[in-house]
Amino acid sequence: METTEHGSMDLEHTIPLDIHSLGKGGSDKQQGEHSGEQQLNKDDGKVKINPTSSEQARKSQHRIPDNMEHWKDLLKQTIGLNKSFEVQVREMTFGSHRVALLFLSVFAKDASLTEIIKRLTYLEPDSIKNPDAMQAFLENYVPAIQIMKTTSFPKMIDEVLMGNTAFYVDGQSAALIIDAKSFPGRNPEQPSLEKVVRGSQDGFTETLLMNVGLVRRRLRDPNLRFEMLKVGRRTQTDVCIGYIDDIANTELVESIRDKINSIDIDGIPLADKQLEEMMVGGGWSPFPLARYTERPDVVAAQLLDGSVTIIVDTSPSAILLPTTYFDLVQHAEENRQNPFMGTYMRWVRYLGMLASLVLMPLWFLFNDKQTMRPEWLWFIGADKVGQIPIILQFLIAELGVDLLRLAAVHTPAPLVTAMTLLSAILIGDIAVKTGLFINEVILYMAVSAIGMFATPSYELGLANRIVRLALLLAVFFFHEIGFVVVSTFVFLYLAFERSFNAPYLWPFLPFNAAAFRNIILRIPLPLNKTRLSLYRTKKSRKQPI
């Protein structure tokens, strides 16, 4: 499926190009392009990285030359004409004017460019008498919907690298930028991590324009804004900030915009994850500070609540900011059922997540110190220990689940079911029968794994696993004191954590009764009249009283 990407008309984005440094006399700078990156200078006590020759070449503005041969020479030095196979220049003559089309063959939409050329071939030799031939082509002869004129050579290069086509006329110091491109893409499919029984089955793809369209389809609000930015000196990755202008907090939007604009890096080829690390941070924290979603309906709902979304080109997911711990445990399926069943499903999910965190450590603690075990938990404990110490059994089982998950990712889809059945049944059964493991370890490990996979946020599920391992080791070394200390430490750590200045444990800390009620219960829509105070929205009411 062909999909047309945005960006062709973003002519305000300028990356200056020093043409003179790219002439025949610029060999020294070209040779320093590779070595200059690694040279460090100390200026005012700060260590700075010397820019490459290509970066230096973009620090000044230069007009497009009015001589085609000079123009092509610059293309050879800047974009690799005649050296890189996909860089193409199609020269023709229309209306007695020598014309060239500059494009990347891997992005060019053949049908659109062929139609433009076919229409231009009908021009008579003396049909363009206006000395400003470029303006005449723009106003009368080039049949394209999205087209803009530019006199900046760096802009032209930047737009061509984005997939657009440059229309150049010999003798004119300008070019027309034509949006005639198609990026490889796929049709929207059901998100793999956020499936629902009822509801829309479309999810984000790797094409930014399609993702924006999926959100626009659900939010026909004239106040919906999508701002386009670019990140990466080399990748020039498109990053889109989405928000509703009369709802979202202006300071939040400006903070996110400033964070993105301040990023100075070669590129973010891994898209949203690298962008998150550069702007949100978190360091070595295992807990995610940003919420990812593959569902456009979730993004639309969050935008209506006052959240801000970030969509990165080439990524099939969107980032929602700010994020709290309780945002990460919400799922779209709860809102696709009636309030009673939605609340029940939410409680079951919470119970599973809690079990994945503390079930194994508590069983291990009660098994090790049976005097602490309540009478009603008489069945807790193991009659047999096995040939391997129980703590090692738990650690090996944890690593086995991780290994099984990684193997499932790299196994072809038709073989995943067979592989998981063989691993879970044969390996687990044989380990128990040979006496290496005991049944209780396999049982509680399975329950914990199910609770982890029931966590809506994949990243939060992995973080909870680290907490479970820490609790297990604390119980093994320090018994009940270790369990209390590690639990308290994790709670305090989360209490002091923040995501874009939003408390991570809100609405529990600081406590907000109305918002906490929405966390515990799936409130019927007619009763859900106000927006969350966390976002400090301009309009707090969603429907009249």
From TrEMBL:
Q: Is this entry keyworded Nucleotide-binding?
A: no
Q: Name one GO cellular component term.
A: membrane
Give the stretches traversing the membrane: 347-366, 415-436, 442-462, 469-496
Query: For this chain's UniProt record, which GO biological process terms are given?
Result: spore germination
Q: What is this protein called?
A: Spore germination protein
Per UniProt, the ranges with Basic and acidic residues bias are: 1-15, 26-47
The record's annotation in Pfam families points to: GerA (PF03323)
Q: Which family does it belong to?
A: Belongs to the GerABKA family.
Q: Does the keyword Zinc apply?
A: no
Region: Disordered; residue ranges are 1-65
User: From which organism does this entry originate?
Assistant: Cohnella abietis
Source taxon at top rank: Bacteria
Which keywords does the record carry? Answer: Membrane, Transmembrane, Transmembrane helix
